[in-house]
Each structure stands twice: as C-alpha cells, then as structure tokens.
C-alpha cells in the first residue's frame, strides 16, 4: 500500500508540473502575441499580398495571352481570307484573258495589247506577260530567261500547271499554260499578268493596334515575299532564319518551323530588341504562302493588364485600410 500510495503521489505531482508547464507556455505565447500582434498581422497581411499579387499577375498574363491569341487569329484569318479571295479573282480574270487569246483570229500584237490596255483599269494589274517555247519571259518592261529556274520551267512548260512567280522579280506574276499561240515570230506557251506587290498587298498596311502591326507574306521555307510598310524590326531575306537570334518566351523557332509545315497554329511570344511581341502565323490558300503577324505584347494586352492592375491595387488599398482601422480601434480599446 505504501508503495502504491507513493506511486500515486508521484503521478499526481508529475501531472501538476505538466499543467504548470502548459500554463507557463500559454502565458508566454499570450504575452508574445499581445506584444507583437501588430507585427504579426502586418507580416501576415504582407505575405497574403505577395501571394495574391503573384497569382493575380499569372492570371492577368494568361488572360491577356488568350485574348491576344483570339484577336490575332481573327485579324490574320480575315487578312488571309482577303488574299485568297483576291487570288481567286485574279485566276478567274486570267482565264478570261486566255479565252480571248485563244479566240484571237489575228496574230497582230496590237490587237491583244489594245484589249489588255482596256482591261487594266478594271482589274488593277500592271501588264500582260508571256512565256515562249524557249522559256523566255516577256512583259511590258523586260524579257528574262527562265531556264535557270528548272522548277518553274518544268511545272509550267512540261507539266503544264499554273504557277505564281512570287520570288523572282519585284512583282508577282500569275501564269497559266496555253496552247501554242504564234504572235509575230514568237510561239508562246504560257500567258499571265503582272502585279505590283505593293499594290497587291496593300491590305497588309492596316492601322490596327495603333499601326504597330507587322505582317509578312512568306513561303513555307521562310523566304519573305512581302512586308508591310510598318515593318522595321526584321529585315533579313528569310524571316525564319532572321528569328534565329531572337529569344522565344512561348514556343520556339523549331516549333514554329514544324507548325508552318504541318499547318498547326499556335500563338508564340518572342523578345526582339527591347520589346516582347506576339507572333502569329496563318496558312494562306495560295501556293505555300504563310501570313506571319507580329504585334507588341503591350499594344495588344496593355489595356487589359493596366485595368486589371488598377483593380488589384484598389482592392489592396481597401484591405490595407481595413487592417489599419482594425489596429487603431484595438489600440484605443486597449
């Protein structure tokens, strides 16, 4: 019994010391909180602000990216559609010329020349062009041999397929094969029309996004066929090669090349000079053309980001005022 009694006394005494330790720890924590609660509140509020700010910045940037992608897809799609429609109209016009050419009973060049002159103002082209059986190209201003470009001569004269000469001269030429026609001393095998590229692609010189849109018509390999008048950032012959030194934030140059080959579309961001640009590419159903659009990120998404940031700062100010008011009221009551 003595042993049992002594055991219970030791247990009770030990429990008492535990309770006293708990109360002591509680008192210390209470004293610490009462002394530093303002600092704790401010630090906690600061941490919350940092977390919220980071999340808000990520959300704003993602929203701006999605909206920018949608807007640029719509803009590029409209421009590409206009180019395709214009091209179809030109091929139809060329077919009309071909029928007139075939039905021409006289081999007098002046007869055909007069007809073409009458139609120039209606259709907006610069001149007629012809290719003879020796692969010599003729238009109003020049005559050039096409023999050095085997791909053109084979496709046009051997395979007898329509072609676009979009990277040989400072103009765009659309040519279709025709039955052999003799005019004067020449036997012609193809008929086409010549367009001034600047007039043909004047639709690219749009004033959207404060006139800071840069548009390029390129081949699938990246060779630039035409640049909008706003272009002053990339001047290389091959657009894709010129982007080799650029820093891609979203996407990569390899992915851009792959997407152009596959027809897949993805909005990318690239850093050039001291600005970041959205880069959008859209296939154009003319030959293997691509429409590449570049717009500064701050021009496309600047308004959204500014509005969102102002809203966030207002909420932050309101939260700070609430904390300050709470601190002041508690201090007075204490």
Question: Would you write up a description of this structure?
Answer:
The protein is of the alpha+beta class and 334 residues long. Helix content is 54%, strand content 22%. It has seven helices and twelve strands. The chain has helices spanning 2-103, 109-123, 150-158, 197-200, 239-242, 253-262, 297-333, and strands at 127-132, 136-138, 143-145, 163-165, 171-183, 186-196, 214-218, 224-227, 247-250, 268-272, 275-283, 290-296. Helix 1 runs antiparallel to helix 7.
Query: Could you give the count of β-strands?
Result: 12
**Gyration radius over CA:** 37 Å
**How many separate helices?**
7
Percent helix, as a range, is 40-55%
Reading the helices and strands in chain order gives HHEEEHEEEHEEHEHEEEH
Can you summarize the main beta sheet? 6 strands, antiparallel
Distance, first to last CA: 55 Å
Shape verdict: rod-shaped
Poorly predicted runs: none
Query: Which structural category fits the helices and strands?
Result: alpha+beta
- Strand adjacency order, main sheet: 3-2-1-6-5-4
Average the pLDDT over all residues and give the rounded result: 75
% residues in beta strands: 15-25%
């Amino acid at each position: 019994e003595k042993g049992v009694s002594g055991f219970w006394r030791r247990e009770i005494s030990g429990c008492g010391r535990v309770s006293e330790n708990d109360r002591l720890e509680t008192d210390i924590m209470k004293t610490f909180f009462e002394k530093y609660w303002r600092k704790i509140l401010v630090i906690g509020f600061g941490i919350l602000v940092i977390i919220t700010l980071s999340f808000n910045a990520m959300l704003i940037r993602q929203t701006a990216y999605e909206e920018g992608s949608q807007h640029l897809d719509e803009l590029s799609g409209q421009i590409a559609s206009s180019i395709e429609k214009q091209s179809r109209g030109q091929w139809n016009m060329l077919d009309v010329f071909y029928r007139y050419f075939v039905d021409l009973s006289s081999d007098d060049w002046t007869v055909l020349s007069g007809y073409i002159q009458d139609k120039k103002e209606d259709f907006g082209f610069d001149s007629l062009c012809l290719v003879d059986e020796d692969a010599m190209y003729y238009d109003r201003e020049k005559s050039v041999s096409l023999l050095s470009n085997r791909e053109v001569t084979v496709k046009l004269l051997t395979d007898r397929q329509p072609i676009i000469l979009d990277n040989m001269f400072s103009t765009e030429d659309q040519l279709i094969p025709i039955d052999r026609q003799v005019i004067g001393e020449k036997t012609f095998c193809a008929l086409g029309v010549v367009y001034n590229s600047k007039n043909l692609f004047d639709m690219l010189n749009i004033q959207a996004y404060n006139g800071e849109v840069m548009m390029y018509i390129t081949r699938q390999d990246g060779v630039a066929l035409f640049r909008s008048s706003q272009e002053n950032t990339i001047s290389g012959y091959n657009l894709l090669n010129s982007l080799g030194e650029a820093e891609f934030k979203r996407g990569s140059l390899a992915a851009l090349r792959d997407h152009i080959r596959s027809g897949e579309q993805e909005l990318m961001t690239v850093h050039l000079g001291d600005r970041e640009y959205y880069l959008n590419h859209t296939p154009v159903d003319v030959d293997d053309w691509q429409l590449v659009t570049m717009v500064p990120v701050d021009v496309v998404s600047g308004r959204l980001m500014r509005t969102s940031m102002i809203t966030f700062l207002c909420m932050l100010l309101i939260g700070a005022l609430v904390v300050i008011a709470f601190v002041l009221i508690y201090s007075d009551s204490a």
